[in-house]
Amino acid sequence: MTISIRKTYKFEAAHYLPGHNGKCSNLHGHSYVLEVELTGTLVSRTDASDFLMVTDFHDLDSIVKPLIETRLDHKDLNETLKEFIPRTTAEGMVIFIAAHIKALLPEHLSLTEVVVWETATSRAIWRGQVCDTWHNHTQPVSTLPETESNG
Fold first, then answer.
1. 64 in a domain, yes or no?
2. Residues annotated as catalytic (active site), given as ranges
């Protein structure tokens, strides 16, 4: 039986869109919400610790939280993501995040959807293939260089 699970994360970050015709060309911040959906088969071995689970939510946390902590939360996204995406739009971010999660997922799990909520009414949704337009985007977060803490 195939089941999907979804986990929600939150982070605060600042960014701006150089050359944009509108308010977003100025430095501003968002309270982002990130949703990650995985699909897989339920573990059927009754002696397994993850019996009747697709995966333990803690295992998903071990993939997503390091990315949030090192690259997203309380960061200037134009600085922390500049080598990975050409512009810090919600669309660029959702592709970047999906690529990192996919690179670290075990083979028995599928990443089916990633949603980046920029505001309470505006979001970008990834479903499908990871874009290979940007050269470093698939490098797993566990191999990314550390960034300085902004306090």
1. yes
2. 24, 74, 118
Question: Within a domain: residue 148?
Answer: no
CA–CA separation, 28 and 14 (whole Å): 5
> How many domains does the chain divide into?
1
CA distance 29 to 31: 7
Q: How far apart are CA 147 and CA 81, in angstroms?
A: 10
Diameter of the chain measured on Cα atoms: 58
Domain presence at residue 147 = no
Output the pTM of the full model.
0.85
Q: What is the distance between the alpha carbons of residues 125 and 113, in angstroms, rounded to a whole number?
A: 7
How far apart (Å, rounded) are the C-alpha atoms in residues 97 and 75?
A: 15
Domain limits at 105? 2-142
Query: What tens digit of pLDDT does each residue of 20-45 get?
Result: 999 999 999 999 999 999 999 998 89
Backbone angles phi, psi at 134, to 5 degrees: -100, 130
